[in-house]
Design a protein that fits this description.
- The structure is a homodimer of 204-residue chains.
- Chain A has helices at residues 28-39, 60-65, 96-116, 129-136, 161-166; strands at residues 50-56, 82-89, 120-124, 142-151, 180-182, 200-201.
- The first copy, chain A, is α+β, with helices and mostly antiparallel strands.
- A 4-stranded antiparallel β-sheet of chain A has the order 1-2-4-3, sandwiched between helices. The first copy, chain A, has a two-stranded antiparallel sheet with strand order 5-6.
- In chain A, helix 1 crosses helix 3 (96-116).
- At the A-B interface, helix 1, strand 1, helix 2, helix 3 and strand 4 of A face helix 1, strand 1, helix 2, helix 3 and strand 4 of B.
């Protein structure tokens, strides 16, 4: 799989650190810019189904959310300057599956805007979503999908080995032939060896 | 709602034109870069559930896809240089809803990488997904979610008024108070006027 070096910024340098500086704070204006990035994401029929809970480290919202993190996430996530808990409307939308797709796009826009601002993000799905929704008073029409931890990188020496090791995992991706395909070639009717059609890896 | 002027490129200048130049062609290397952008998107447990059908204008794959566009999309989509038909694995994944979220992120990465390359994209959900999946031979474990039309802008004079008018629609977004919230404030137990808790618009 080609590495990310050929991509444009801020995509090229995006990755998901697990060691955040627990003294760094985001300003209200910075949080607003991240939310504006989400809001200008595209969505089906401009439905904008994304909803974000803004949990700044040290706030009551953060305190209500943190107890519902999975064990593996309970160490590193609370050190981040901000967690945006990302959910989507699933009732008053044309298609709830598309709402999840649209929310993912909005979260990607947050992530890339953050990178352009010199911040790092690390998304996670490991938290008790129903319990967090209850603790946060999330309306029943909204389904929580992911958390986005946002901040600046901290010193690995400040965190337990388990969280430090997360960052050392090799970043790998599937080869393009496993994610890109072509189809629909009618083949050569006169050649039994060329049946055409069908789903096959994109050959470039 | 604040406009997009305060965002970083390529987010700032991203929008979804409906008039594509039907003479422009993408190179294989450009298509590969878009797919590499998708592949370096983050996903739950690095599951990478995204799958893309590569339908270059003029290819058999494109010919197999186009008949399944909705009436409203049948005029403008085929003029684009490329359609990536975006789907996700929904069987061999931990959570199919999260797969849809992850696919949305990968599509956003495609869209923003394209913008950085001077291209425009316009995503659409309006096509007969089961029929397109059948025509393309998409495996049953993959659910098609959206199309991404990619190319360069064409001359509005070359397209029917209906497609020209799409581009003139005002771009609007919900105010931040409708997409960002806080919660969990315990309130002041001594003040009946401050019950705290609950879901309320983020106040910045």
């Amino acid at each position: 799989m080609p590495d990310a070096e050929g991509l444009a910024e801020p995509l090229r340098s995006r990755w998901s650190p697990s060691v955040f500086d627990d003294a760094h704070e985001l300003t209200s204006a910075e949080v607003a810019t991240l939310l504006v990035a989400a809001s200008w994401s595209p969505s089906a029929g401009n439905s904008q189904p994304w909803r974000f809970v803004v949990a700044l480290r040290g706030s009551p919202t953060h305190a209500a959310f943190v107890p519902h993190l999975s064990r593996g996430n309970s160490g590193w996530v609370p050190r981040a300057s901000l967690v945006l808990v990302a959910g989507c409307e699933v009732v008053d939308v044309k298609d709830a599956d598309t709402a999840r797709y649209d929310l993912g796009q909005a979260s990607a826009h947050v992530t890339l805007q953050a990178r352009a601002m010199g911040l790092h993000t690390h998304q996670f799905a490991g938290f008790d979503k129903p319990a967090a929704a209850l603790a946060l008073g999330v309306p029943e029409s909204v389904r929580l999908m992911a958390g986005i931890a946002i901040g600046v990188r901290g010193d690995p020496a400040d965190v337990p080995e388990r969280d430090r090791e997360r960052e050392d995992r090799e970043r790998t991706r599937r080869p393009l032939g496993e994610i890109a395909f072509t189809a629909g070639d009618p083949g050569d009717p006169g050649d039994p060896g060329d049946p055409g059609g069908g789903w096959r890896p994109w050959a470039g």
